[in-house]
Description:
With 248 residues, the protein is α/β, with parallel strands linked by helices.
Amino acid sequence: MNMEKVSVSAVSYTNTLPFIYGLQHCPVISQIKLSLDVPSVCAQKLIHNEVDLGIVPVAALLEIPQAEIVSEYCLGASGAVNSVFIFSEKPIQEITSLRLDTQSRTSNGLAQILLRNYWNREVHIVLEGNADAYVEIGDRTFGKKNAHSYAYDLSWYWQKMTGLPFTFAAWVANKPLSASFIESFNQALAYGLAHRETIISQLPQRPDFDYRHYLMENIDYRYDERKKKAVSEFLKLMKTLDREPINP
Ligand SMILES: C=C(O[C@@H]1C=C(C(=O)O)C=C[C@H]1O)C(=O)O
């Protein structure tokens, strides 16, 4: 049978390796066409219908027509995530400007939400150039925590503010997909998560970053009721920001 493949955009960071491993080692691989993209591009591809399914920054959910979360797995954190920061040489109470990360959607929004609602600060937001502090996500942050005077782990502060875990990205389809495909897809994701130790053993050793702790503890992959609540609280707060965080 010659069936159209489902095109899938997945995040190109280490945190998504377990999902990619699962997809590549399970039968569903024959039904998909996989591309790896930075999160802001995953969002653009889903919004513009260039793919059918993707792990998408939750901040982009409102812009995707017919968005449907199709998995019980996500990229989340219960407390510190250790790869989403505001880095600064000044304490957050003294910054007057913040540069966003063009690879991010969710964390750019989260940073602005925390500044306003947790730190009670109104700061100038820039997309490029100099600023007192900057948002950075993904592998580029690994080992940088001690290179700056201040490093604010954003999901840790979100938990302090709301008591909730956080969901950075979820598996979203922009059109109805068959129930049997969704089942096979989720089985593959579960397979990958169950093989995290294999993935970790293939990663390089580095003195300044603990991959095991990151993939086993920091990233919390379950998309459960509390993470769903986090998404609805987050989207509510996103709507109160007076500007779109970023649209690359
Ligand atoms: C925890 C992370 O979550 C990411 C952050 C995202 C965002 O800010 O839009 C989107 C997807 C995730 O890859 C990370 O990549 O460090």
